[in-house]
Amino acid sequence: MSFTSPRLRLVLILAVTLSILPVIAIISWFFTVQYKEAALIHLHHYAVTVAENVATAEADFIITENYASLQDSIISFQRRVHVESITVTTPDGIVIADTDPENLGDSLTVPMGGADWLPGQDTIQVDFKAGLAKTLLPIQVGNATIGWCKIVLDVGYVQNGLVSMKKKITVVTGIALFVISLLIFFFSAAVTRPLEDMMVVAENVADGDFDQQAKVAGVFEIRRLAEAFNMMTQAVKEREHRLHQAQKMEAIGILSSSIAHEFGNPLMGISFLLGDLKRNPCLDEEHQRLLDLGLEECSRMKKLIRDLKCFYRPTSGQVTPVVLHDLIDNILLFQKSFFKSRKIEVVKAYGDDIPPVMAVEDQIKQVLVNLLLNAAESMDETGGIVTIGTETDAKTVVITIHDTGAGISRENQEDVFMPFFSTKPEVSGTGLGLSVSYGIVKNHKGEIKVTSSPEQGTTFTLVLPRCMTG
Fold first, then answer.
1. Residues with Cβ < 8 Å from 309, sequence gap 6 or more?
2. Does 20 share its domain with 161?
3. Which of 94, 227, 278, 457 has most Cβ atoms within 10 angstroms of its Cβ?
């Protein structure tokens, strides 16, 4: 089994994870900021409340300068929750009471112009790393500032809350990613399993098994991919078959030409010898008849050798633009009596504006004659119909020759272009007509195909490159 599917699943999981992590990070940052803002508001409110309580309770001590009682009072306030220290100063910043007695008499920087202090000016400074929050608020009687109160709060609980919240976010994030990964892992099977099956089929096709078909399943895009893959496999199978056929024909063509060459010279000598013997006046009538038969067989062998030499390598000629309709009409004119004698009707289904093809005219004529004769000979004495059609596209001209004859069985269709293959009686042909035609068409960079069904007739399709003007 290939590892591509696990890799694809891993890629999907990583892609979704990388997409979700920034979102989670933004959400975490948002909640952290919101938590800090809420904590600041809470701390500020708590600090102001403590300062107001100190101011209310200690104002008389400050006015009467009873600093000993003031000291005892702020120490009692220090026992409140989250109060780290309290410092009380005179209006000019001299420490007159502090939860740490060692700070008494020290100077503390305070705002100038305390009488003009407004409620909106109170501030709080929070150091989350140190776990402390500091605020400095005026102690006022009426509009007069009689001192300052500095309060330091322990905000470790806020920091602990932040840490706890981040841990919860981390846990929730981990659980969410795990669940999402599981969902992706299972739901990705709808994509990866058909792909995995397709890969197995592809490997078998690569090994030459073109009968393999990918299973059409999964999501729409995967089904389309499987259908396209199956179509491609069929196309490769057909092209592979054509390639093997062409290679086989090429090999047989080379062998045939070589055999024809080797037989040609001895046959020529035999023909000359029989000719000399025939001119001998001493021969009786029976011997003369035997010599005539020998010379006829030599002539038949010469024709067979010429066909063999032409097989797959037609005789070279001048390539010129060929007007197919004129060429076909000329062939039909010469074959008119032949078709009439066999009760065959010829139907022309010519297309409009068929351009010329670049070809050796006599060679293409030979191909068309072979195909028309085969069509005629496929029909019995009751006759039939031969339909000749032409059409064109941007690059090629297509000629179809359809007959209503006996047809060709499916197993024989693969062999019709093989040398010496024929469904005719032995006395009717050598089986080289379609083989030679195949070679001619291939040398013209064209294509020849056959489709047929028994008792349904046969269609030969000839595809040739069109003559490109300009």
1. 256, 257, 260, 261
2. yes
3. 457
In a domain, 191, yes or no: no
| Collapsed DSSP state (helix, strand, coil) of residue 147 | strand
Question: Is the CB of residue 124 less than 8 Å from the CB of residue 134?
Answer: yes
Give the model confidence (pLDDT) of 16-67 as tens digits: 777 777 887 888 788 888 877 887 777 777 777 777 777 777 777 888 888 8
Domain that holds residue 117: 4-180
DSSP state letter for 462: E
The rounded distance, in Å, linking the Cα atoms of 88 and 459 is 114
What stretches of 64-109 show up as alpha helix (H) in DSSP?
Answer: 67-78
CATH number at residue 96: 3.30.450.20
Contact 312, 442 (CB under 8 A): yes
Q: Hey, what amino acid is at 237?
A: K
Is the distance from CB of 378 to CB of 403 less than 8 angstroms?
yes
The structural domain count of the chain equals: 3
CA–CA distance, 362 with 314 (Å, rounded to integer): 10
Asked which of 280, 313, 346 is the last residue of a domain, the reply is 313
Q: Per the domain annotation, does 189 fall within a domain? A: no
Domain boundary among 313, 330, 349: 313
Which pLDDT tens digit goes with each residue over 94-147? Answer: 988 888 888 888 888 877 644 444 444 456 777 777 778 888 888 877 778 888
